[in-house]
Amino acid sequence: MSEPIKRRAGTKMVPYPSQSIVPERDLGKQPVLETRHLGIEFGGLKAVDDFNLIIGRTEIAGLIGPNGAGKTTVFNLLTKVYEPTHGTVLINGRDTKGLSITQASHLGIARTFQNIRLFNQMTVEENVRIGLHNQIKYDMFTGILRLPRYWKQERRQHQQALDLLSIFDMQGLADVQAGSLPYGAQRRLEIVRALATNPCLLLLDEPAAGMNPHETEELMENIAKIRDQFQIAILLIEHDMSLVMGVCEGICVLNFGKIIAKGTADEIQNNPVVIEAYLGKRKEN
């Protein structure tokens, strides 16, 4: 954490109520995500405690911290895999309390996972079209009888899938079995499938895991491209600091389930509390 990391020209971050910062371009707009005193306990153990975060509508944000800090637990709280013990999650200003995973998805939140979860026996295109299911505009009767509306929608979804795959230059792999793809390509396919749900907030759980430096550099470019093209917010968990510092505008650092720092890449990279969390406290002579 102590060595400077090369990154692109930074976005100006400005203060926002609740001791947060957002990109200047998002100021005055309703945040896509706001958590208030969010927390969860397992058998009396506080896995996440008093987690407060605001993400601007087009912000690329990072959630980092040592192994076991509670980062994936936060993602599970945001996507309703877990119901919080206390606190609030707002998506576009709507309280998600009591919602199911499906209902939260319909609000516009999508995610990828640490461990890839593709339908390995299906083709690349079929995996993407699963993400497009919430955009089907024909009824069961039309589908069973294969009426003209059905075929029109099928052609449209085929083209949508190819357009999404083109983000990662994967349209030529549409008919390939997903399970036969190289690891890095499977990672990219999972991101494309999440984008197919038309989210306003995309959660990426260690998207660079298993990628080489060249693939990570391409991923960095594509994360920025996705934000710009779809005008959505992205929150990523990542251990590759070159990726985090290179693409994230606001960064939140978690340790033992609590936020220990929030700020820009420069602020986080030079924060002694963050350095200590990663490297340990230096012994005094």
Quick overview of this protein structure:
The protein is of the alpha/beta class and 285 residues long. The chain is built from ten helices and twelve strands.
Q: Main attributes?
A:
single chain, alpha/beta, Rossmann fold, 2 domains, six-stranded mixed beta sheet, four-stranded antiparallel beta sheet
What secondary-structure arrangement, pairings included, does this model have?
Blueprint: E1 13-16, E2 20-23, E3 33-42, E4 45-55, E5 60-64, H1 71-78, E6 86-91, E7 94-95, H2 101-106, E8 109-111, H3 124-131, H4 140-145, H5 148-165, H6 183-195, E9 201-205, H7 213-230, E10 233-237, H8 241-247, E11 250-255, E12 258-263, H9 265-269, H10 272-279
Parallel strand pairs: 5-10, 5-11, 8-9, 9-10
Antiparallel strand pairs: 1-2, 3-4, 3-6, 6-7, 11-12
Helix pairs in contact: 3-5, 3-6
Structure report:
With 285 residues, the chain is of the alpha/beta class. The chain folds into two domains: 1-108 and 199-285, Rossmann fold (3-Layer(aba) Sandwich); 119-196, no CATH class. Residues 1-5 have low confidence and may be disordered. It contains ten helices and twelve strands. α3 crosses α5 and α3 (124-131) packs parallel to α6. Helices cover 34% and strands 24% of the residues. A hairpin with a 2-residue loop joins β11 and β12 (258-263). Strands 8-9-10-5-11-12 form a six-stranded mixed sheet, sandwiched between helices.
